[in-house]
Every structure is written in C-alpha cells, then in structure tokens.
Amino acid sequence: MNASSSSPGDDRGRTSRRGSSPRRRGRTRWLLITPLVGLTIIIAGVVVLEAAAPLVDVTGRSVVDDLPSLILEDSPTCTRQSDDTTAEDIRGRFVPGGRVSSGQIFRCPAALDGMEVSYAGEVVGDILERSGGAWVQVNDDTYALEVGPLVGHRAQNGFNTGLTVWLPDGMHERIGGVGRPAQRGDVILVKGTLLRTDPEDGGGLTIRADEMEIIADTLTIENPLHVPQLIAAIVLALLATGAMIWSRIVARRL
In Å, how far from its chain's centre is CA 252? Predict the structure, then answer.
C-alpha cells in the first residue's frame, strides 16, 4: 500500500474541516450585522419618537416687549487692519448708557471698552455667588427674547449668545428663576460698565452692573404627555425584564 494514501476517515475529517469554514464565516458575518441592525433600529426609533413629540404653542407668550431700542443700527466688525478706526467710529456714534447686543459687542469689543452700556437678556444657568455679589450668564438671543425655550417648539433659530454680568449684592437676590430646557428665566435689563478684559473674571468680557430691572418674569413650559414615548418605554421595559428572566432560567438549566 502506498504510504501517501489516506484512509476514508482522513478524507471525511478534511471534508468536515473544509465544510466548517463557511459556517464560521456566516456566524462572524451575523455577529457584525446584528449590532448594526440593532443600532439602526434604535436611531430610527429615536427619530420617529422625536417627530411624534407634541409641540407647545408659545406664540406670543415668549416675546419680550418694551425693550429699549438698540443704539447702534449696524454691527461693524473690527479686524487687525481696521481695529482702531472701527472702534473710534463706533464710539463716536454711541450714546453712553444706550442698549447694545452681545453680537455688536463681540464684533468689536474694543469699541465700548470702559463705557456705560445697557444690556437686556435672559438669566440662564447658575447664579454664581461670590463675596459682594454674583456672576450670571445673560443671553440675548432669539430663544431668550422671542421664541422661548427650544424644548417647547424645537424650531432652530440660531445659536445661544450672551454676556457674563456681575450683579452686586442687592440685585442677584431679586432673580426669581433662571433659564433651563423647559423654562425661560427672568429677563433683566442692566446698566453698567463694559469691560473688555475684566481681571475679576480671568480677563473675560463682562458687564459690571450698577442698575438692574426685571422686565419679564420666569416662564415655565409645561410639556404635554408624550404617549408614543410612554408606550415605547413600557414595551422596552417589558422586553428587558423578559430577557433577564429568560437568561436566569437558562443559567439554572446549565
């Protein structure tokens, strides 16, 4: 008998090994596909639930009326080549104590450095109390003065913009509420000195308030019950509970 010949058993072993390779590839393929399918379903579910969320009609409720007009009608931007010229032009047209927006200030911070300005916006975030007063973030964007918190209407209206304001003792205690996802905070009108680099704020751009007036109280948005989201949460909770019970039953059998 030829020494190189193989027995039928060896042929079956090689055939079996060759045949197992496609099965391994199939299992590996499913191990890769299953998480992707699951992730796609989750993302699609989130998008559908977000689209089905009930909206809150805040038309007219969030508009802050009776704001002083902005002193500067335009918003010139300072550049390295025109910084001094533009700043001097703005200073020449600005009336001390007039109302400015955060956008106008950010476009040319040097223009009103050290001048008295008025500024209106919504108090958001936290009131950071320090010795002698408190730091607050005051936003004057569309969400603060016109359309209200995004969670109520989900209409994109630009970015959040605002300034850091220092309120001495006797002012920050009067703030009744601050802005958060389902609430517009108090809208205040402050008058004070604009500092381009405030040493007490680590060199940040701030307004040191001398006067403060609350021109709109806190507005809370009550979201209606999101029924599809509630149903989805219950179904997922039941599925998770069932999977946990099933895994324990299987573990006991083993």
Answer: 47
Q: How far is it, in rounded angstroms, from Cα 137 to Cα 166?
A: 9
Which tokens belong to 41?
Answer: 């379903």
Three-class SS of residue 104?
helix
**For residues 6-36, b (16+ Cβ closer than 10 Å) or e, as one string?**
eeeeeeeeeeeeeeeeeeeeeeeeeeeeeee
CA dihedral 228, 234, 240, 244 (to 10 degrees): -170
Coil, strand or helix at 10:
helix
- State CA 167 to chain mean position distance: 25
DSSP secondary structure letters along 108-133:
-TTTTTT-EEEEEEEEEEEEEEETTE
Determine contact, residues 121/102, Cβ cutoff 8 Å.
yes
Crossing angle between the packed helical segments 8-52 and 227-253, to the nearest 10 degrees? 150
Most confident of the ranges 3-7, 158-162, 188-192, 217-221 = 188-192
Confidence band, pLDDT 50/70/90 cuts, at residue 15: very low
Across 82-108, average pLDDT: 90
pTM of the model: 0.70
E-assigned strand segments in 21-161:
116-130, 133-139
Kindly give, in sequence order, each residue whose CB lies less than 8 Å from that of residue 113, ignoring residues fewer than 6 positions away. Answer: 194, 195, 196
Look at the alpha carbons of 89, 90, 93, 95 in this order and tell me if their dihedral is positive or negative. negative
Among 62, 63, 56, 65, which residue's Cα sits nearest to residue 219? Answer: 62
